[in-house]
Amino acid sequence: MQAGSSGGSGLDITSAGVPASEFFLTPDGQYRIEGSEFGLLGSGAHGIVRIAQHVQTLEYVAVKITPTSVVRSSCKEMTALARLSSAHVVQLLGVQVDMHDQKVYVIMELCKGGELFDRIAECGGLAEEDAKRYFAQVLSALRHCHASGIFHRDLKPENILLDDDDNAKVADFGLAAVYQHVKDDASFLQHTKVGSVMYAAPEVLVSTASSGYDAARADMWSLGIILFSMLSGTLPFECAAASRCKRYAAVLRQGIQVMCPEHLSSQVTSLLARLLHPEPSQRFTPQQALDSDWLRGAALS
């Protein structure tokens, strides 16, 4: 479920022809939430996201409303967002709990540019220079996340939002792994199968409680799939399991270049090969990716 996205810009819910009866307030009365279909920004297994407006400043925000029965996911996202301070991570503005109605309200900045997914779908793939700027911004966000002990585990174009200035922001940390300290031993390994199969690293698909996987390296695989989709307008394969996907089996034999469109530069193809390396230890970190030939010197704004 995307958090804080909007398909349009310059929204004015006061003049959108929405009956006043379809508005409701946050528990503290400070935000007026648009309750009709117009105000619905997204929905998922854990709740919904709606547009809202501060009653005094008239600032627009996004409010994720979840039942207290799934408070574990809400707490994980709130913990992650509260710890992070990056221009390319959706900003947490506040949290309110209504014990009577048993709902949690997570208030975040509103990204009026919508989802990166929609931008890719509209264009059928982005020019390398456009993809380069978005990707550098997402890498910058992920570098900060990993340094803060936060691993997203559900990176996909639907969870990357665009703001008023067409800058990318990582959102939806409901499935994140959040650590106080990341140790050098194997205790940091994850084995929970989370996220979307099409963006999941091969080791995630086969992980067990005894083997586990490195969530940081798995995030980098997901970014590789995102970069491929930005440049080509499609996915390289349906899942990273050779027994279930012939296209992935071909990648294992010949490398990711076998799936790359001919117009891609050799620099970005080389980067894709390091992000989508089947061996997790061989994948680039966010900083190594930012230092790659393709991204070296790329502007973040």
TrEMBL record:
Source organism, top-level taxon: Eukaryota
Catalytic activity: L-seryl-[protein] + ATP = O-phospho-L-seryl-[protein] + ADP + H(+); L-threonyl-[protein] + ATP = O-phospho-L-threonyl-[protein] + ADP + H(+)
Enzyme Commission numbers on file: 2.7.11.1
Enzyme kind, highest EC tier: transferase
Keywords recorded for this protein, A-Z: ATP-binding, Kinase, Nucleotide-binding, Serine/threonine-protein kinase, Transferase
Protein name: non-specific serine/threonine protein kinase
Domain Protein kinase: 35-295
Lineage, top ranks: Eukaryota, Haptista, Haptophyta, Prymnesiophyceae, Coccolithales
Similarity remark: Belongs to the protein kinase superfamily.
One Gene Ontology term from the biological process aspect of the record: signal transduction
Binding site for ATP: K64
Classification via Gene3D superfamilies: Transferase(Phosphotransferase) domain 1 (1.10.510.10)
A molecular-function term among this protein's GO annotations: protein serine/threonine kinase activity
